[in-house]
Amino acid sequence: MQIIETGQENAEELMTKDRVLFESLSSMPLLHMYQFAPKSATYGYFVNPSDFFLMENVEQEKMKLARRPTGGGVIFHMWDLAFSVLIPASSPLFSHDTMKNYATINRQVLRAVQRFLGTKHGELASQDGNILGSGCAHFCMAKPTRYDVLLEGKKIAGAAQRKTKHGFLHQGSISLLMPEQAFIASLLKPDLHIIEGMNAYTFPLLGKDASLKDLNRGRQEMSQLLIEELQRLGESDGTTCYQSN
Question: Among residues 211, 220, 226, 221, which one has the least CA distance to residue 79?
Fold first, then answer.
C-alpha cells in the first residue's frame, strides 16, 4: 500500500487532492494521510450546507467548508484524525458490495483504536442507530451507521465512500476530542439537535476531559497505529508498502 502524507492544507485543497488521486488511481492501494487547516468542515456530495449552517456566522468565524467527492454528512475536522484510503477495482480488497468495503477498512480502524486504548473491546455497528432529530441524519458524529467503529455503543470512527468501476475512495474520520459546543452552536441553525446527537453518540479517544494540548500527541500516535494496521491490509493484498512524501 502506497502511503502519501501531505501535511496540513485547507479543506478545498485536500478534497481536490483526494478527487485527483481517485481519478488517477493505478493498480496499488493508497493511504492518504493529512490534516485540515484550523476551522474546517467537509460535507457530502449531496448535502447543501446552507440547509444547516448560518452562513454569515460561518464567514465571520472564517470557517472553511468543502464538498467531499464522497457521500455522507457534515464532519468537523478541528477535533478528529482524517484520512483517505483508495482501493483499485483490480485489488482483491475491492468488492462490488459497498458495505463490504466499509467493513474491510473499518476493521483495520477498529484494530488501531483498540491498540490506542489498550483494550479488546469495541465493534463495528451491525445496523444504523436511532437519530435524535432529522438534522442529525446529516452530521456524521451525531448518528451511528452500519459498520461505524463503536465503543460502549458510541461512535469513534465513521466514513463516507464513493465507488466506481475503477475502485473506491474511503474518507474516514476518527474522533479524538469532543467538539466545542458553544462554537458549533454559533454556526448552526436552531432546533437541529446536532449537539445533543454528538453528545449522545460520540466517543472521543482522548476522553471528554482532554484539551487541545493533547490533540497533536493523539493525532501522531493514532496516525502511526492506523498506518500500521492499514499496511497489514496492503500486505494481505500482496502489494508493496512504501512511503511517499
Answer: 211
pLDDT digits (tens, 9 = 90+) for 114-143: 999 999 999 999 998 888 877 888 999 989
pLDDT tens track for 137-169: 899 998 989 999 999 999 999 999 999 999 999
Are 5 and 33 in contact by the 8 Å Cβ rule? The answer is yes
Alpha-carbon distance of 143 to 194, in angstroms, equals 9
Is the distance from CB of 155 to CB of 202 less than 8 angstroms? yes
What CATH number is attached to the domain comprising 55?
A: 3.30.930.10
Distance, CA of 60 to CA of 63 (rounded, Å): 8
Q: What's the number of domains the chain is made of?
A: 1
Domain that residue 227 falls in: 2-244
Q: Would you state the cell numbers that stand for residue 192, as one nine-digit string?
A: 437541529
